[in-house]
Amino acid sequence: MTRLLRAEFTKLFTTRLWLWLLLGALGMTILIVGLTIGLSGSPGNPNPPLTSPEGQRNLFATATASSPLAVVLGIVAMTGEYRYETVTPTFLATPRRSRVVVAKLIAYAIAGLGFGAVNVLAATALALPWLSAKHIDVSLTANGIPRTLIGVVLGLAIYTVVGVGVGALLRNQVGAIVGALVYLFVVEGLVSALPYIRDYYKYLPGGAFNGLVNNYQTNVHYLAGWAAGLLLVGYGAAFAVLGTALAVRRDVT
Residue 46 in 3-state DSSP? Predict the structure, then answer.
């Protein structure tokens, strides 16, 4: 397993895709943090003020905007083997396929933790001086902010694991990425916005993630933090188990 993990990290850092995804995620985080602070207090803005605990938690929770790219990172980890036909020598070198998939899950969970940590640092580095310039005092150890920051890091790691599972299930890289993005941006967006079904949004991955980081919205009620965290872990475990099972049983060619 140690050798397999080393091989996965070698595959990850040999190409620059992880860097472009990380830069894209940082761009999304910085953009949304900037918009959140810049539009705070403007007429018609439904978000709580940044002087309130809810507004400050929501501000740092904007780092969850990079979650789609964390999923893409995990998807590419698995589907890249099939797209570039490296899966055959990989499974020949390690006939017990489950070990290969488990190594990918562990390696990309670690990569997801790094992904989340960098985005949290970027959000914090931008928010703190800007809020200070607006004479808004923020303590990173109060108002539930530590839970939000830790939740972002853990949630992005779980999303990366989900991506590996999705890639193992679908195998087609383009189809898996497009399907995941359509679900995250369109399906979850509609469920969270439509009045008759938005009460069920808290049970979806995005709703669980928002509950974990203690996000606040006036029209959506999320699960308690521990319940949301368990639900999100459950999604990650389910995709990991299903993806591993199919990767072990299906023909490669």
Answer: coil
Distances (CA, A) of 124 to 66, 114, 127, 226: 15, 15, 5, 24
Q: How many CA atoms lie within 13 A of 40 on its CB side?
A: 21
Torsion of CA 142, 156, 11, 182, to 10 degrees: -150
For tokens 């905007």, the residue is 65
> What pTM was computed for the model?
0.91
Instruction: State how far the Cα of 212 lies from the Cα of 247, in Å rounded to an integer.
Output: 30
Instruction: Tell me what pLDDT residue 216 has.
Output: 81
Categorize the per-residue pLDDT at 15 as very low, low, confident or very high, splitting at 50, 70 and 90.
Answer: confident
Structure tokens at 154: 């853990």
Of 181, 185, 188, the residue nearest 202 (C-alpha):
188
**pLDDT tens digit string along 115-146?**
999 999 999 999 999 999 888 888 888 888 99
Provide the residue type at 193 as one letter.
A
Residue type (1 letter), 82: Y
